[in-house]
Amino acid sequence: MAVTLxxxxxxxxxxxxxxxxxxxxxxxxxxxxxxxxxxxxxxNTTEEGPRRRxxxxxxxxxxxxxxxxxxxxxxxxxxHSHPDHPARPSQYDLDHAWPFFxxxxxxxxxxxxxxxxxxxxQDDRSAFSEEALTHGD
Length: 137
Prior knowledge:
Elements: E1 2-6, H1 7-20, E2 26-32, E3 35-42, H2 58-71, E4 74-83, H3 91-95, E5 102-109, E6 112-121, E7 128-136
Parallel strand pairs: 1-3, 1-7, 4-5
Antiparallel strand pairs: 2-3, 2-4, 5-6, 6-7
């Protein structure tokens, strides 16, 4: 599977990662037919320290679903940043992932956005599979 980020979406995710550095940012992604056209910032309310963790609480998820209906778009997944770490999912990311969603990760090194990748949870929930990530107009 593949996901395409509109140019403005990729820019918004990178900017959010820089804005929250050295903490992780997180947000929801919306679109249709594999193309993400909108994002919505979510609060990083983890109690484990926002420097290395993010958490989408049930209330935040409900808000993301409500925003989906408001926009008339599908909730396609979530994004977050990895401050000073690669754009690869951690064990924590795996433990807290939901099936069917794309998970975009942007690496932010010393306040500068770097690589961006996208991941899907495998059906047996044992691991992520990297999915093709492209950038559109």
